[in-house]
Specification:
This protein is mostly helical. The chain has helices spanning 3-25, 54-73, 78-90, 94-107, 113-124, 129-142, 148-163, 167-180, 186-197, 201-214, 219-229. It has a domain at 185-231. It is built from eleven helices and no strands. The N and C termini lie far apart (88 Å). 30% of the residues are buried.
């Protein structure tokens, strides 16, 4: 091999190393698949939240180390991945947390905690709304038939209402929530507020009455109906 080929080879290896380094530390909009990363990539404890005091850092470091110890033995342990991700998020390492939660998505695609944690982080911390929406949708799919499903729908309704400011999609979310949770009064209560805020009082009253049918002893719903009737 001549000197020119050797130089080109070395240069290529350097570029590959820099790309791998950047995938973790300068996380782009396009997500790197967790399977492309070695296990050691998840095991750096980086404190990026400068407001934390030492006892908080020590607590999160302990949690991180416990999860790491489990994963070094069994990298298929979902609870350890979740614990590792949460510890990283707690110290402000959002990209590290993202990688760990995406790993859970990959190894347990039918779970809900990792999808819920990701949409919460994308919505309330990193403000990456384009990444948040598919996580809401997957969390809804994975919680069908569970009590927490209505909570995910509520979060999606708030996301459409406050982050995306899309009233029509917010309203449709409530109808979908009512369909998937026919015994819950919450979608109808939120729909009543939605209509009331827009001065559609007849529609609001109808929604509150439906909510009361499902939760006849709820004083808040009764009061909302009384207030509308006396308007």
């Amino acid at each position: 091999m001549n000197n020119k080929k050797i130089i080109n080879l070395v240069f290529g290896l350097i570029i590959l190393g820099l790309v791998g380094f950047g995938a973790y530390y300068f996380w782009p909009k396009g997500q790197v698949e967790p399977t492309e990363l070695p296990l050691e990539s998840y095991f750096e404890f980086r404190v990026l939240n400068e407001e934390l005091v030492q006892w908080e850092i020590d607590k999160f470091k302990t949690s991180f180390e416990e999860a790491k110890a489990v994963l070094m033995i069994n990298d298929d342990d979902m609870s350890a991945w979740l614990k590792l991700a949460q510890a990283k998020k707690n110290v402000g390492d959002y990209r590290g947390a993202e990688l760990a939660w995406l790993k859970v998505n990959e190894i347990r695609p039918k779970n809900s905690p990792s999808f819920i944690s990701l949409y919460d982080m994308y919505t309330n911390f990193t403000k990456e709304y384009d990444k948040a929406l598919p996580m809401y949708q997957k969390a809804i799919e994975n919680t069908l038939g569970e009590e927490k499903n209505i909570e995910v729908y509520r979060d999606l309704y708030n996301f459409y209402t406050y982050q995306l400011q899309d009233g029509e999609k917010a309203k449709q979310t409530l109808f979908d929530a009512a369909k998937d949770n026919p015994k819950s009064s919450l979608p109808w209560v939120l729909l009543g507020r939605y209509y009331e805020e827009r001065a559609f009082y007849r529609d609001a009253l109808s929604a509150y009455e439906k909510a009361l049918e499902l939760d006849p002893q709820n004083p808040g719903i009764k009061q909302a109906i009384t207030d509308l009737e006396n308007r």
